[in-house]
Write a structure and sequence with these properties.
- The longest helix has 84 residues.
- The chain has 128 residues and is mostly helical.
- It is rod-shaped and about 130 Å long.
- The chain has one domain.
């Protein structure tokens, strides 16, 4: 940045001194004061422009980071939901395994046509 401002000021100084020489004012105090003011203005404008560019780049980067927060939150939520689904599936499998013996006995008695222990047979009355 320093080199860029220095190069711009050197080019501008050459132009200003050329104009002062052409007008016959080369070396006058007034001409030197005008040159110094013009060079300071150029340096200030270039510095302000660079600062604005850096600020915009920083803000753009920060907005990207802030914007990614919702995406990360959604991805985390999806991971949590997947973990809950796995937990539910494991719980259901454990329940199925625990019920398997009881269900087998129920089927066996169903094949024999008699109720299992603890069940009642209900017969409906027929016609005449």
């Amino acid at each position: 940045m320093e080199d860029t401002i220095g190069d711009a000021q050197m080019a501008q100084l050459g132009q200003l001194q050329g104009n002062a020489s052409f007008g016959g004012n080369l070396g006058s105090a007034r001409s030197e004061a005008m040159n110094a003011a013009a060079l300071s203005k150029t340096a200030g404008e270039m510095g302000a422009a660079e600062l604005a560019n850096r600020r915009n780049a920083s803000l753009t980067g920060a907005q990207g980071v802030i914007g990614s927060g919702s995406t990360i939150g959604q991805q985390m939520g999806q991971g949590i939901a997947a973990t809950e689904g796995v937990g539910s599936a494991i719980q259901q499998q454990n329940q199925n395994e625990a019920d398997a013996g009881y269900q087998g006995i129920q089927r066996l008695f169903g094949l024999y046509g008699s109720p299992a222990v603890g069940q009642k047979t209900v017969s409906s009355g027929g016609g005449k």
